[in-house]
Amino acid sequence: MKVVRSLLTQSRVGDALGRLPYLPQLYASHFWRKRMNLYFGLYGSFEEAQDTAQRFGKSTWDDDRLAELIVHDTPDASNGGLSTFQISYYPYILWMTKILQPGNQVIDLGGAGGIGFELLSRYSQIPEGVRWHVVDLPALTARGRKRHGANHPVLSFGETLDEAPDCDILVSAGCIQYMRDPLGDIKRLLDRPKSPVHIVLNKVPLTAGASYWTIQNHMSVVSPYRIFDREELLGFFREHGYAIRDEWTAPDVWVDIPFHSGKSLDHTNGFLLSRVH
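Below the sequence we write its predicted structure tokens.
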């Protein structure tokens, strides 16, 4: 299976097969649509990707079946409710233990049921007075409230970034690539009188050229997925007064796009950005 995947996503053979009439469509309907987390197609905008995604079914992360897979009802005592530990968690935990201060407010964009908070709680001590607010879609935040209780002393949940409190640290791990206009949403947060001191991004797909989109299969839903123009993304944060303090690769999250070897990625990226003015 790995050999076939490599041929389709990382070789000229796959590119040539993609030019055969009807083959990509047959692949999508008979193989891709029946498997979780695979990617398909190349698109020039979110709208184009979403139009294609909707031909295969529901196109939103606000889905009860998907939420059940991501957020269990209660934390598992044996492992803190976490799935297999990913390599990309290490730099996130390292930097959060260094920058998180007593009394800080964290906004966790795309934090589902509170996975970022649970990770840090498992491997470090949360400083006194910290508040952690997760922003995600209703199906996911509902399960987060059920998992942790409505009156958790640290965790809270909301559905929009605009309604989130001011924060000292903005965290987003593997979320912004699914959003229609992530930089527009984040800009409104950064333009507030009190903007984050630090921003931690993790598992972000980047390219050296113009942004492009693919679609990803989650079985019950299919979603647009953006690969960001690196200079455009980091330039946005520079314009808002942030500088890169650290950067890392996340080899455990990659993007294989069949029939487009030049657009596949063997890793994603993470950053710590700190406000300099």
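Confidence is low (pLDDT under 50) at residues 77-81.
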